[in-house]
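User: two proteins, same treatment. go.

Assistant:
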Amino acid sequence: MGDAPTPDTGCTHCDLIAGIATLTTAFAGPGTRRVWPALVADIAADPAPAETFFARLFDPRRAATATALRRGIDRGDIRPDTDLDLLLDLLASTTYYRALFGHLPITDSLAEDIVMIVMSGVATDTWRAQHPHPYA
């Protein structure tokens, strides 16, 4: 899943695409549909593999992306009041979900698609006017 830091290219969405691409690359292999559900079951049932999974795979990748998000806040690309934990979950969850359930493919463009939708949002101005929210 990659333990290298998410790159700092000077471009927030480029950094996030590169970071999320480590997940899509890791989960794009043919064995993912067999291995991933079994791993999820194992870490749910036993604290030892869960601790190893989080310490070696999950937490380092998440921390690297969190660093990229904080750089995006510093650049003015991401709102400073953004819930970073929620944003981290939003960015990574599509890949995990597809790896677990296999209902849709993990494509070469998935990382970019995820980042572009999350960063740009999907609501229209009409919807935003009808549903005011601090993040809108």
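Protein 2:
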Amino acid sequence: AKLERWGDGETGVFAAHEAVGSFYAALIDRFPPLETFNDDDIDRLGVWSVTPERSEAIVVASCVWSRADEVGAAVMALVAAHGLVCYEPGYHIVNPNALGYLAPFTLTSERFPAVPEPDDRRLEWMMSKVGRDNGYAILKRADGWFVQVGYGMFAGVANGTYALEYQEGSLDRHFRCETPDRTAAVRLLQEFRVGDDAWKQRHLWRPVHLDSE
């Protein structure tokens, strides 16, 4: 909502802060402005669709698709280092990055950006994307415990099948089962997030022996 107001020209939506200016300087140092390259080098060395404008309140950064993973990882590291809120508009993801903040749950996958504090709707959306082009989704708790869903060949099972796994703190507490039911995979993620252990009784889990190295 704030971005929409800011985009409509409303002033004072975002407060100025020295950390924003410091972030901008670090970002431009890591990925120089397009204007610093000649015509021969810009396609090879430039990452920006448009060079971000200097600001003490908000920095809007848009990069070329071919460098998106590299730039995205660098941006996330810099905003965390500077304690800034980062919003990823393509997937509507907010990373608070407040001092001392640790997301109680974080959702990751093969293809999409990490999502701190996903709600049930986000978990269901992510499972709708798990398949041949996005082989897994992992929901990790702040203490390191996690559940994960892998699909098809990525997880060593037949296409149309989901491999469900969970780990409780150590490699010797890692378990696995398989199901063709996507709804069961969604429920695993959703129940784990709210602390409901019904998923443990719903499936027949077997231990997985992982190499600690």
